[in-house]
Design a protein that fits this description.
The chain contains eleven helices and seven strands. The chain is α/β, with parallel strands linked by helices and about 280 residues long. The termini are far apart.
Length: about 280
């Protein structure tokens, strides 16, 4: 008996509701609602939610989740001696209708950090570059109007125009990390590529590495954007938007790792069975 229907049902729950800060606000509201009938329990629930919210809103509090994730990977010491045959840069988010770029979509800050490190690795190694990422979400296809210019297309434009780095392959059809891996590996293996430098941020690397290894390719981790050593001093405990962003992302990745492990077999089968969008020539 397959558990895919249950996984698909859980996957439809909006991620915002199970991640901070929304889940903590829900806990606080629940505590306030229970306060009238069960004062002690209601106060404890609301107080716990508020205290955890304050802690996770700080960079120091976020490090409780960030550090275990980043300890699962390490900076790449010698890219040129890694024995890789290609560089794969994974998409993150994008900004729609950027007015300063003629109202086209552009990579967001996280995607730009990955692209910057990918460009750095290209200059060190001279290896061909693949960019991967579509406009959908996990199990959700993008709107038809957004299929012509995927996240990978925007990444390719940025690499070529802003960083002066040529792009060999564009994978525009993937909707999540598992499909990043399945569709990219299919393209790479068709050109005889068996070992890659995988570029993403450090918190995303553990999940991305496993996805690409399960897709059947050798992975050399090339993570960027490490935060674990930046939360220092008393100021690191001051709540901030950046602290909550790190907590949100780290909790999301930890849940994602558990999710991938729970449905590894069914995810691999579903990704292999879904035909990817045709690759496009890397032209600007």
């Amino acid at each position: 008996m397959t558990l895919d229907p249950a996984f698909d049902l859980l996957n439809r729950i909006p991620r915002e509701l199970i991640l901070p800060p929304a889940n903590l606000f829900l806990l606080i509201v629940l505590g306030l609602l229970l306060w009238t009938h069960w004062p002690r329990f209601g106060r404890a629930l609301a107080g716990t939610g508020f205290a955890v919210l304050c802690i996770l809103s700080s960079n120091a509090g976020a490090s409780f989740f960030v550090t275990p994730l980043e300890d699962m990977t390490a900076p790449l010491p010698a890219p040129a001696r890694a024995g890789a045959q290609a560089i794969v840069v994974l998409a993150a988010g994008q900004l729609e209708n950027a007015p300063e770029y003629g109202n086209r979509a552009i990579p967001d800050v996280t995607a730009l950090a990955r692209l910057r490190y990918g460009a750095h690795l290209y200059r060190l190694t001279g290896l061909p570059v693949l960019v991967s990422g579509g406009n959908g979400a996990s199990n959700v296809d993008p709107d038809p109007a957004k299929r012509e210019y995927a996240k990978a297309d925007a990444m390719a434009v940025a690499l070529q125009q802003d960083f002066g780095v040529p792009v060999r392959w564009i994978e525009p059809g993937s909707r999540d990390t598992a499909e990043n891996a399945a569709f990219s590996v299919r393209m790479l293996r068709a050109d005889g590529i068996k070992r890659i430098l995988l570029v993403t941020d450090a918190m995303h690397m553990p999940r991305a590495r496993v996805a690409f290894q399960r897709a059947g390719i050798e992975v050399v981790e090339a993570p960027t954007m490490f935060f674990r050593d930046q939360a220092k001093g008393l100021s690191a405990w001051v709540p901030s938007a950046e602290g909550m962003r790190r907590s949100w992302y780290a909790v999301y990745e930890l849940i994602g790792i558990a999710w991938y492990n729970a449905r590894a077999g069914s995810t691999a089968a579903a990704s292999a069975g879904r035909a990817p969008s045709a690759s496009r020539a890397a032209k600007v």
